């Protein structure tokens, strides 16, 4: 791995503290990922990315900035990447999935705040995430109260743009979200100095659609009822990295991996023994490097075959209509696609329950684990409706609340082990 310390110093990072994260990550990655057997060869790319996760992509972003391009850091799947790409900008996800960042977040946020929000703020204020240091602008959205107030802190020394997401899905809300996209496009044009044209936006829509199609192919291979060609742990990593990677490269590597997985299905090459119970995980997103739950499930006698969450099917399902001739039509198409994300922030939200029941059939699952990050009242409250619907459908379900700390790992292992055993 290249020596990135000079780059990190130039970014104003706390390099000494960051070294602690760099030292811990390879051990955690080795324990979770490299201990797996019979992994697809295509996973070597994602192993390589993680080996230098705070170096490879940040270096690319810095080179792009030298060419005059702007980098936009985002927190959520509702921010339309297509708008930024159409203005020759770059989108990157932002750090927020490790207990390492939580203490710095708790210096300014209540302890009763969701760990994802605390970790994001801590990664920025602690100066231990290069993506937070590089981004020229942060783009937030009003999906939860914790993030809304955190944006006020994050926006103190970096330009912060917030998109006001409607809380319902009526026709007027679709139009309102379209207006928000139009306003965002104007801000991006102003910030980048580049004009968004119908031609550029259509090209961007096709690029991001191709990324979604490639991710969908990886997940499609997981639907095989007789074979499990990739672990859920590996599939989760692919999705997590997709938030940070160049979209064209992401599509290329996902398609190569999908080719291998499809061939594995044809040849009956599985990463689990025949008869292993198939689990779907639903609930709050799992930002990198939050691999705890998948690792516990897949070392407790079961396999994760699907994730109904933002770091799962919500990220790539549904395409934006292509080939539209005017910006007005394109903005409306973007609104319709993004409003199909069935986040727990909406009320009423029957679409998410319908998605879960549909995916449970498509992926031939034996049981569902509904996971909630502590203090996320949205998903915690919606868990009632989710678990009731699954029970009525005769699908076993286990509700879990956890955070990033490993202190509850053995308790979770006991509960998940008992759930898997109950599946027979």
Oligomer: single chain
From the N-terminal CA to the C-terminal CA, the straight-line distance is 45 Å
Secondary-structure element order, as H and E? HHHHEHEHHHEHEHHHHEHEHHHEHEH
Number of strands: 8
Estimate percent helicity. 40-55%
Instruction: Name the overall outline.
Output: globular
Strand order of the largest sheet: 2-1-3-4
Major beta-sheet overview: 4 strands, parallel
Spans of at least 5 consecutive residues whose pLDDT stays below 50 are: none
Average pLDDT number: 96
> What radius of gyration results from the CA coordinates?
21 Å
Structural class comes to alpha/beta
Share of β-strand residues: 5-15%
Question: How many helices?
Answer: 19
Can you summarize this structure?
The protein has 424 residues and is α/β, with parallel strands linked by helices. Helices cover 53% and strands 10% of the residues. It starts with a helix and ends with a helix.
């Amino acid at each position: 791995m290249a020596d990135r310390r000079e780059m990190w110093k130039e970014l104003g990072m706390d390099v000494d503290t960051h070294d602690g994260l760099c030292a811990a990550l390879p051990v955690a990655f080795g324990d979770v990922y490299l201990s797996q057997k019979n992994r697809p060869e295509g996973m070597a790319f994602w192993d390589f990315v993680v080996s230098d996760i705070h170096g490879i992509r940040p270096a690319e972003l810095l080179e792009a900035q030298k060419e005059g391009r702007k980098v936009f850091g985002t927190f959520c799947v509702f921010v339309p990447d297509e708008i930024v790409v159409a203005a020759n900008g770059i989108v990157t996800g932002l750090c927020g999935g490790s207990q390492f960042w939580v203490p710095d977040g708790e210096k300014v946020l209540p302890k009763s705040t969701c760990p994802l929000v605390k970790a994001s703020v801590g990664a920025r204020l602690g100066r231990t995430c290069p993506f937070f240091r590089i981004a020229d602008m942060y783009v937030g959205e009003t999906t939860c109260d914790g993030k809304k107030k955190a944006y006020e802190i994050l926006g103190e020394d970096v330009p912060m743009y917030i998109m006001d997401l409607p809380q319902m899905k009526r026709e007027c809300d679709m139009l309102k979200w379209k207006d928000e996209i139009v306003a965002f496009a104007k801000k991006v044009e102003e910030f980048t100095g580049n004009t968004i044209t119908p031609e550029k936006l259509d090209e961007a829509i096709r690029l991001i659609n191709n990324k979604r199609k490639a991710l969908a192919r990886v997940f499609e291979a997981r639907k095989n009822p007789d074979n499990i060609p990739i672990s859920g742990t590996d599939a989760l990593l692919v999705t997590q990295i997709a938030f940070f990677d160049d979209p064209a490269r992401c599509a290329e590597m996902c398609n190569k991996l999908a080719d291998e997985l499809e061939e594995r299905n044809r040849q009956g090459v599985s990463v689990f023994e025949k008869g292993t119970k198939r689990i779907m995980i639903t609930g709050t997103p799992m930002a990198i490097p939050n691999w705890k739950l998948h690792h516990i499930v897949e070392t407790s006698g079961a396999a994760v075959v699907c994730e109904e969450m933002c770091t799962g099917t919500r990220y790539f399902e549904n395409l934006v209509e292509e080939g539209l001739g005017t910006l007005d039509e394109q903005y409306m198409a973007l609104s319709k696609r993004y409003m199909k994300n069935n986040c727990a922030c909406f009320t009423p939200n029957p679409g998410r329950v319908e998605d879960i029941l549909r995916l449970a059939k498509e992926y031939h699952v034996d049981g569902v684990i509904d996971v909630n990050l502590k203090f996320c009242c949205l998903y915690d409250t919606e868990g009632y409706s989710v678990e009731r619907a699954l029970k009525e459908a005769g699908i076993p379900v286990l509700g879990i609340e956890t955070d990033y700390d490993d202190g509850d790992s053995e308790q979770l292992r006991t509960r998940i082990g008992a759930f898997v055993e109950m599946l027979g």
